[in-house]
Structure formats: structure tokens, C-alpha cells
Amino acid sequence: MSAALDAALAATDAYVLDNPWKDPLAAAVIGAKVKGLMVGYDARWSGGEWVLDGSPEMTVHLPIVNLETGRTSRTFTQAGKFDGIATGYGKTVLLEHKSTGDDIADPSAPYWRRLAIDSQVSKYMLQSWQGGKKLDGCLFDVIRKPIIRPKKLAKSNLDEISAKGSYCGFQVDRDEYEAVLCGQGEETPHLYFLRLASETLAEPERYYQRRMIPRLDADVAEYAAELWQMADEIRLARLTNRHYRNSAACMEFGRPCEYLPLCSGEDSTESDRWAMEENVHGELDGIQNGRDVLTNSRLKVFQTCRRKHFYRYELGIRRVHEDEVEALYLGSALHVALAQWWAEQKGETDGCTDVAGSAPTEGAEPHSATV
Known about the structure:
The chain has helices at residues 3-18, 24-45, 110-115, 119-130, 155-164, 174-182, 189-202, 204-207, 217-240, 260-263, 296-304, 306-315, 326-346; strands at residues 51-52, 58-65, 72-82, 84-88, 91-100, 138-144, 166-167, 170-171, 208-213, 274-276, 293-294, 317-319. It is an alpha+beta fold.
């Protein structure tokens, strides 16, 4: 059990408490998933040479520059939030956390080929370069999301909890047995956490991979030219009021675009189902309004569908009371846990909580698992 894991698990609990998502139980299950992943993450990477340089989750805000002419955009600036800068093995790199459902154990998997040309990395390396620090590349710190979910416990599981006070090799309290009975035999979030922790500890290669991907100066310069061109295209779309739709993106990620009711004429921006945000980049510290600020997310939306970009970033319109999808909630909670883990590794936090995280060993006594 490391202090970094203690801090990450405590941060996850705090996040879930402050952001109950759909309901407290649904949030607790996702929190348990994050904590189970963090147990395996800590076992896999604790004590490694990579160390955080500076603070995690750093916001940068810089001009957009035409490298050929030296001109600075008079309309737009660029901004973003780094997961962090890390040093190790004689290199200084951009640290980028990713979570995915794809295979990451195979070095030749399509997931890694896509990351090799990820525009977000080029943008962040350009921003670091403009800020006076040239990096050696990007360290992709990738976690594979589990497919297992809370399950109905078999009689043998109940007997193990009741008679031995253990589950998946971890010690548990009698209260867990009572909670399972009250829940009609369903695995509690805490028991799910322990089962997932056991699986991630047993299969670290499946769940955790890191790879450093370099960016040549020419690659960063090429992206700088692309950024200037995209900024100009957004400016022209604004001047001409032409924000055409891309119907191929209406069902991106297997669900309807939030703006489909507006594009299809089913709804109007004047209805009470929509609200206008004052700041379209609320995730970035110190950014006001943000309609003239280009982020990686904004640029991707513009490339995907200019009408969606117009609604979200030009008008600042968002659906009122829209439910956050599970993947986004999981990603946010996981980022909070990872930021705390890396900060603690560097010694920037203090204090711990008594939580479960030791690896179960075959034939050993159950581990203490107090949360």
C-alpha cells in the first residue's frame, strides 16, 4: 500500500461524494471501478523512474502564431490543460493519461497507431515549445477500462464472506454480508471494487501500458501551420455565417448528437430545454467567455461538424439538465485519481486514509480492506 494509492482512493471517494451523477449508487459503482483500476495501476507503476515535473492538470493560454511570417492571430488564442510534464530516463515528456476499451497489450494494435498521429499531442507540444520548454515526446499512460460489472453473488461467495470474512483474497467486514442480503444478493460497490482490484493485479499487462511517442520539430511545425489554417477557417465561417452540417456525425459514438433536435427542426434554441453558457471553456482555469479561444476539443468539433461547433462554441448553447454519460463521468473521476496519485508520488500532498490495496496472495491470510 503506497501513500500515492491512499491519496488516489481518497480523492475518488471525495469526487463521487461531491458529484453523485445519476444517483448515489450509480456514482458509487463507477467510483468502485476507478478505485479498482487504481489499485492495479499503483502496483504496476509505483516506484518507477517517471516523476511529475511541476503540477498536474496545468492550464496554458497562448497566442496562435504563423511560423512562416511571425504574425500573431488577432482573432483567436489557443489554450489547453496538460495532464502533466514528467521526467525520467534522461528525458522530459508530455504526460497524457488515456482510458479506452480497446486492446492495448498488443504493441501493433490499431489504438497505438492512431495515437502516433494524435493532434492533441502535437498541439500540447507546440504550446510547451511556445512557453519555452521543448519536450522529447509524449508519454501515453493508457488504462484499459474493465468490462466486468457488479454481479449477483453465488452461494460460495456468500459462504466465503460469512464464514471466512474474505472476498477475492481481501478481508471484509460482516457488514458487507448484511448489505449483500439487503441487496438481494447483488455485489456491493465495495465488493465489486475488491474483485476488480484482484483482476487488475492478476493481469497488469492487459490493463496498463505506457509508450513514449516522439514528435520531431518538423511535426510540431506542421501542426502549427494546420492550427493557423483551422483558425482562419473558423474566422471565415464566423464572418460569412456559414456553419454547414455533417449528417455523418449525427450518430457519432452510437448515440444522437445533443444538437440533432435543433438541426432537424424538432426543437428551437428559444425553448426552455436550452441555455446559453457565459464561458464555453469552463474546464479551463482563468479563461473568461472563451469564444475566441481554440482548444483541442473545440478544433475536433469543428472538424467533425461545423454546425455543432457553431452551437457549442460560437453561441455557447448547451442542453439543460443533460445527463452525463457514464464514460465521461468515469473519465473525470479517473483523471482526478491519477492527478492525485502523481502529485503524491512527487510529495505534493500529505495525509492518507486507511484503504484496501494490497495484492491478494494465494494461501495467505485475507488482507485488511477498510474503506
